[in-house]
Amino acid sequence: MGFGKNNVLPGNHFRKDWQRRVKTWFDQPGRKLRRRNARKAKAATLGVRPLTLLRPAVRGQTVRYNTKIREGRGFTLGELKEAGISRKTALGLGIVVDHRRRNSSVEGKTINIERLKAYKERLVVFPRKAGKPKKGDSSPDDLQAPTTRQTLPLPPPAVPEQPRKITEEEREFNAYKTLRNNRAETRFEGVRKIRAAKKEEEEAAKKK
User: Fold this and answer.
1) How far apart are CA 101 and CA 1, in angstroms?
2) CA Rg, the chain, in Å?
3) Which of 23, 65, 138, 192 could form a disulfide bond with 142, CB atoms 3.0-4.6 angstroms apart?
């Protein structure tokens, strides 16, 4: 077969020893079983410690995902302070701390503070020495209570509102008009202040 025009000459490599370069994965089922047994052994050595660390509930980024709630990297220092937990204590109680995160909304901060308080109420701290409990350790009655290793579930993204009748005030309310008026007031606030100050100066000059 000839080659026409000024085209690229084909350089097909059909004689490479590809079987030497194939990576097989026949030990996948065995590896899966080994990892599962390792997880079981690790869980047994942890005792009654929670299976996973406690993380905050945060909103997803961008308009597309901000209606969903997911686990964040760690709690802020402000959230820990409001819940009455120090930074050093949190690390020992299985609470992840993220000093870089900031609280941008009151609602998000409140959810995480309640999450920390609920975790603190459910937490059972065993003393290092059975006969010498320290400050912060659980009472003997709490130690005898049944325990669970499941972490706190994430809160619902939105609290559903019960169906009700629309009031006359809500029916007459025009959301679009209100938003546009507030936008215009914010936009022209500085200009209107300058105009009002100038008018007062002119009136004061006329009186003189």
Assistant:
1) 66
2) 32
3) 138
For the whole model, what pTM was predicted?
A: 0.61
Name the residue ranges covered by the structural domains of the chain: 34-144, 168-207
E strands along 53-92, which residues?
A: 57-59, 69-71
> Strand, helix or coil at 173?
coil
Q: What is the 3-state secondary structure (H, E, C) of 3-31?
A: CCCCCCCCCCCCCCCHHHHCCCCCCHHHH
Q: How many CA atoms lie within 13 A of 51 on its CB side?
A: 10
Q: pLDDT tens, 42-64?
A: 888 877 778 889 999 999 999 99
Q: Rounded to 5 degrees, what are φ and ψ at 58?
A: -125, 160
47 Rama sector, left if φ>0, alpha if ψ -120 to 50, beta otherwise? left
- Which parts of the chain have pLDDT scores under 50? none
Per-residue confidence (pLDDT) for residue 44, from 0 to 100: 84
State which H helix or E strand residue 90 sits in.
helix 87-92
Are the C-beta atoms of 157 and 67 separated by less than 8 Å?
A: yes
Cα atoms found within 13 Å of the Cα of residue 157, Cβ hemisphere only: 8
Position 43 scores a pLDDT of: 82
Bridge partners for 95 per DSSP: 54
